[in-house]
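[Discussion] Sanity-checking designs against the backbone

I'm trying to build intuition for which residues belong where. Below is a structure token string of 91 positions. I'd appreciate it if someone posts a full sequence so I can compare it with mine line by line.
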């Protein structure tokens, strides 16, 4: 399973980036897709849902997964880069 975890700004400490929670804070992505498609889907859903950033995870389940990317911002000042990190993780 591959999914994107979304992040938001905390109230305290100010401006700290924290994992969002709830059913809207993740999106499961088809693992058969190419890495650039996975990155585009994650970035689009993150922006659509109003979150600040996203990170890709891979594993058997939500509780047994590990991050396979860094945390990427969807702001216009810091757009997502080409997600070449997936190719290094046997995708």
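Best answer:
Here's mine. Compare freely.
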């Amino acid at each position: 399973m591959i999914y994107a975890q979304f992040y938001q700004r905390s109230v305290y400490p100010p401006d700290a980036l924290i994992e969002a929670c709830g059913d809207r804070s993740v999106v499961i992505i088809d693992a058969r897709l190419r890495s650039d498609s996975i990155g585009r889907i994650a970035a689009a859903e993150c922006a659509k849902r109003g979150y600040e950033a996203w990170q890709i995870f891979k594993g058997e389940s939500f509780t047994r997964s590990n991050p396979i990317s860094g945390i990427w911002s969807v702001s216009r000042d810091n757009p997502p880069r080409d997600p070449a990190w997936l190719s290094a993780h046997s995708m």
